[in-house]
Specification:
Length: 255
C-alpha cells in the first residue's frame, strides 16, 4: 500500500478532526467497550450453540464457556496452531498499547497524554511495541468509525510495520493476552477496570505486568535508567560507551 509518512498521516488526521470536531477519550472508550462486548457475546453464543448441537440426548444443558482474561491452554484447533507461546523472559523495554490509546494518539491531537506516551516509544527504537492483529483491528475499526476508512487502513499499515505481532486465542482480552505472550511488562490503557488495584493484584499473580494510563506511564518512564539496566548490557559489539544513555535515537513521528 502506498502510504504517507507518519508526519503527513498525523497531519491529515488532525485536519480531518478539526473539521469534524473534537473526540474525547470517553467516546473512544465506549466504542471500544461496545465492540469487544459484542465480539465476546457473539463468540459465547456460537460456542454455546455448538455445545448444544453436540449433546447426546441426556437432556443436560451444556455449560456456557467461561471467558478468561488470559488463556494458557494449549491450542486445540487447526486455526489455533499458530498461537504464540507465552514469553518466558518478560522485558521492561516491551510495551503493549491498547486500542483506545492508539486511537487517542492518532485522532485526539499532538498535545494529548496518548501522543506523548507513544512518542516516547517511537523515539527510542530499543523499546519494543507489541500488538496482536485483534488489537490493531479494534483500533482500525474505531478510526474508520470516527474518521475515514482510508485513514484507518493507512494507520494500520504503519502500525504493522512498527509493531512486533503476536497471536493469542480469539476470546482473550487483546491487550492482556498480547502482553502475556509477548513478554511486555507494561500496558497503556484508559480502561479503569484493567488499571484497578484488584486487577493489578490478579494479573501480577499470573505474569509481571503493570497497566497504566498514558500520563502515568510517561511520569514513571526513565529512559536513562532503563537503557543502562537493559540495553547497554547487551550491546557489546561496539567500541562506544554503551553504558551511557545516548538520548532518543529516532526522530519524532511529527517531524
Amino acid at each position: 500500500m502506498n502510504t504517507d509518512s507518519w508526519s503527513t498521516l498525523l497531519k491529515r488526521a488532525a485536519d480531518l478532526m478539526n473539521e469534524h470536531g473534537d473526540i474525547g477519550r470517553t467516546q473512544i472508550k465506549q466504542l471500544l467497550d461496545d465492540r469487544r462486548t459484542d465480539r465476546l457475546e457473539s463468540s459465547e453464543n456460537s460456542e454455546y450453540q455448538t455445545d448444544t448441537e453436540r449433546q447426546t440426548g441426556d437432556n443436560k444443558p451444556p455449560t456456557p464457556p467461561e471467558s478468561a482474561s488470559i488463556s494458557a491452554q494449549e491450542p486445540k484447533t487447526e486455526s489455533e496452531l499458530s498461537i504464540t507461546e507465552p514469553a518466558t523472559d518478560p522485558m521492561p523495554t516491551s510495551v503493549v498499547v491498547d486500542a483506545d490509546v492508539f486511537v487517542a494518539d492518532f485522532l485526539c491531537g499532538s498535545d494529548t497524554d496518548a501522543r506523548q506516551a507513544i512518542e516516547i516509544l517511537w523515539t527510542h527504537s530499543w523499546m519494543t511495541l507489541f500488538a496482536s492483529n485483534t488489537l490493531l483491528t479494534d483500533a482500525q475499526a474505531l478510526i474508520a468509525t470516527l474518521a475515514t476508512d482510508q485513514l484507518a487502513r493507512e494507520w494500520r499499515a504503519h502500525m504493522t510495520d512498527w509493531c512486533s505481532i503476536v497471536t493469542h486465542p480469539p476470546d482473550d482480552h487483546p491487550a492482556l493476552a498480547t502482553a502475556y505472550r509477548g513478554g511486555a511488562m507494561h500496558i497503556l490503557s484508559f480502561n479503569d477496570q484493567l488499571r484497578s488495584v484488584q486487577a493489578g493484584a490478579s494479573l501480577r499473580g499470573q505474569f509481571p505486568v503493570s497497566v497504566r494510563d498514558p500520563a502515568a506511564y510517561t511520569a514513571v518512564f526513565s529512559p536513562d535508567r532503563l537503557y543502562n539496566a537493559t540495553v547497554s548490557d547487551t550491546d557489546t559489539d561496539t567500541d562506544t560507551d554503551t553504558d551511557t544513555y545516548p538520548g532518543p535515537d529516532r526522530a519524532s513521528r511529527m517531524q
